[in-house]
Amino acid sequence: MAILVTGGAGYIGSHTCIELLNAGYEIIILDNFYNSKRESLNRIKELSGKDFKFYECDIRDRKGLDNIFENEKIEAVIHFAGLKAVGESCRKPLEYYDNNIGGTVTLCQAMRDHGVKKIVFSSSATVYGMNNISPLREDMQTGGTTNPYGTTKYMIEIILQDLYKADNEWSIALLRYFNPIGAHKSGRIGEDPNGIPNNLMPYISQVAIGKLPCLNIFGNDYDTPDGTGVRDYIHVVDLALGHVKAVEKVMGCKELNIYNLGTGTGYSVLDIVNAFKKASGVDVPYKIAPRRDGDIATCYSDPSKALKELGWKAERGLEEMCEDTWRWQKNNPDGYPDD
Ligand code: NAD
Ligand code: WQD
């Protein structure tokens, strides 16, 4: 029996596939390469020393999904596939609702019709919205999202909760990621954003490599120790290992569970800049810019539920996150080669 990984060629998916293969699972990857390159699949094979099947397929393509479920023995699905750029989602809300929500509904219908009722879903800390106070706990109220991307995650959580209420043969884990950064220790796989990065760490590493002139720090007048925004950065390999635990959980129960995957520690933008400079030995010029719409001062997790129920906790610190990001950036200044 295999685990189907949607979006497995992407940033978090590729790291998770390696950890699943290392843990002895058989995997099948599905991706449409909207935001990834085929080369990441070669590197998953190289790093794990293991082979797997791959389907080029869109999660909105019901016939394509039926073909996979008919031909493969799938026990559970880890569902990463989706669009994730906050700014783009404000410009293209219909594409986001179609891809993320439409795609998830089609995937779940195909799963149900083929008797596969175990799913781990990539949710986000963004579902906590603007009004909760950190540390964020899973039982806090969600909603009040500030952009269509975040709203897709909030709505998918509700859809999956309704699905479980209607049929508790399902087993569902909603994983709320905080801010994933870092890369595999080898420097062979990592985050490969298209165009100018939206997120802090890829922006910093592109400034450090000389592709961008200067980091804009969005506001230094927040109510935080140094005035810049505070977030819960988590090493992508720790996040990947959280998925191995979560998929074990869904395969062993018929429950719906929600888990924060974060470290529980908040770092400011300036903390990240300084840690990156130290780890890379390279300067990161920055200037203070206006606040970015939709940003909040502080967001970090209470990760204790995942520790208690999954036996998982993040082990890798900020220094390692910066060193590993830098190794990937240095060795792959232009990301993965084109297909
Ligand atoms: P990513 O863009 O690197 O990976 C997503 C993958 O899904 C890509 O390979 C893309 O080609 C594929 N994909 C997109 N739409 C598809 C479709 N319709 N059919 C098939 N494949 C499709 O993103 P990531 O950072 O690895 O994020 C993975 C998941 O985690 C996403 O759902 C994202 O919203 C969620 N998430 C990410 C973050 C983050 O900061 N990176 C934080 C919280 C949640
Ligand atoms: C982090 C901090 C910025 C860029 C986003 C999504 C969230 C989740 C993770 C998917 C903030 C500051 C950033 C820059 C800066 N993704 N910053 N200059 O906003 O916490 O979360 O990614 O689910 O949904 O909203 O992450 O990396 O964009 O920003 O000063 O060029 O860095 O203001 O304080 P964020 P981020």
Provide a descriptive summary of the structure in words.
Helices cover 40% and strands 18% of the residues. It has helices at residues 11-22, 39-48, 62-71, 86-91, 93-113, 148-166, 200-208, 236-251, 269-280, 304-310, 318-331; strands at residues 2-6, 26-31, 53-56, 74-79, 118-124, 171-177, 179-181, 215-218, 230-231, 233-235, 256-261, 267-268, 286-289, 298-299. The chain has a seven-stranded parallel beta sheet with strand order 3-2-1-4-5-6-11, sandwiched between helices. The radius of gyration is 19 Å and the shape is globular. The structure holds nicotinamide-adenine-dinucleotide and UDP-4-deoxy-4-formamido-beta-L-arabinopyranose. Residues 6-7, 9-13, 31-36, 58-60, 80-84, 99, 103, 122, 124, 177, 180 line the site of nicotinamide-adenine-dinucleotide. The site of UDP-4-deoxy-4-formamido-beta-L-arabinopyranose has 19 residues, from α7 and β8.
Cα-atom radius of gyration: 19 Å
Helices and strands: which structural class? alpha/beta
* Secondary structure tally: strands: 14
- H/E element order: EHEHEHEHHEHEEHEEEHEEHEEHH
Number of helices: 11
Query: CA-to-CA gap between the ends?
Result: 30 Å
Mean pLDDT: 97
Low-confidence stretches: none
The major pleated sheet works out as: 7 strands, parallel
Helix content: 40-55%
**What sort of overall outline do the alpha carbons produce when their principal axes are compared?**
globular
